Amino acid sequence: MTEKPRVECRQEYGVTKVYIDGEHSRCYESKDGYTLYHDAYAPPCPTIEYAARQYEDGVPPTAAVRLRKDFLDLTDDERDRLAAALNEMEASGRYAVYPDTHVAGWFNIHRGPAFLTWHRWYVLTIEDELRAIDGEITIPYWDWTRNGNRDLDAEPWKSFFGGRDNTGGKFDHWGYSRAAGPGAWTLPSLDDIVNEQQAASYAAYRGEEFGSHVNAHPWTGGDMASPSSPADPLFFLHHCNVDRLWAIWQMNHTAVDQYSLDNPAGFLTYPATFVAQGDLMFDGVLGGAVTPGSMLDRSALGYSYAQDQALEDQVVALGFPPIVTA
């Protein structure tokens, strides 16, 4: 039986170096992470330590297999780890960069073609930062249509997010605000989502920004109903679901343009959001500007979503052609 290699991470002169069976090993680093394998093109891990653990276990890095799940389907341990990483980011001051960027870029990231691509990059960016703290974390999504996801004072929402009054949760000390109730706003129904999935073009589909996307913001209220909406960590679960639904639309509309600058009649617009596919989008203080084109292939970005059987079934029940969701 072949012995596993003994892998050590040592701090030397302020730099982390990796030793395999006592011998120094090269560590490949890219903008996406690290790998100890002798192939610079192997899928990277978020930290050197995580890459070393993968190597020691004899398992190739699996950064490309990030499964984002419904918040309801997380285990208690997964929720605890997510909360711990978010709190570590908040305590370091790094989390504040996210609402600041969203406020600064308000007129560059809404009401136009780059809305979906920019927010995909934004969610992926904070997910990468969280994974640098804990390499097993992925952002969960908030499926607004699912029973159990439509009451912030129900469990597990209350003990995680603190409910409407921000008490008894993991982030009570953050200082964001929420409305005491939804007012006249309602969350989207499953039928709403099915109908949006029938859009025949990217320009038509991005109307989701003014459809299912909108209501959860004022329904939650407080910071979520303002440009500083990412101050409430629920924002990222909300936009993870927006991204999930766009990913489903993409999977079922491969024959049409995945991005265009077309603007259907009646759509509200901010001109700066009309970013050509190969041009750089707004990046603000987050840095790392990217193009809309680089955000179109979700699978190449290294994450996937759980299957949505309820959505698949409802599409058929309403008389539309079947779709796939994973």
What do you see in this structure?
The chain is mainly alpha-helical. It has twelve helices and seven strands. It folds into two domains: 7-57, no CATH class; 66-317, Orthogonal Bundle (di-copper center containing domain from catechol oxidase). Strand 2 and strand 3 (23-25) form a beta hairpin. A three-stranded antiparallel β-sheet has the order 1-2-3, with helices on one face. The longest helix is centred in the middle third of the chain and has 20 residues, at 114-133.
Secondary structure layout:
Elements (H helix, E strand, L loop, with lengths): L6 E6 L2 E6 L2 E3 L2 E3 L2 E3 L12 H10 L8 E3 L7 H17 L4 H8 L1 H4 L4 H20 L23 H5 L28 H7 L5 H4 L6 H9 L13 H18 L46 H4 L1 E3 L3 H9 L9
Parallel strand pairs: 6-7
Antiparallel strand pairs: 1-2, 2-3, 4-5
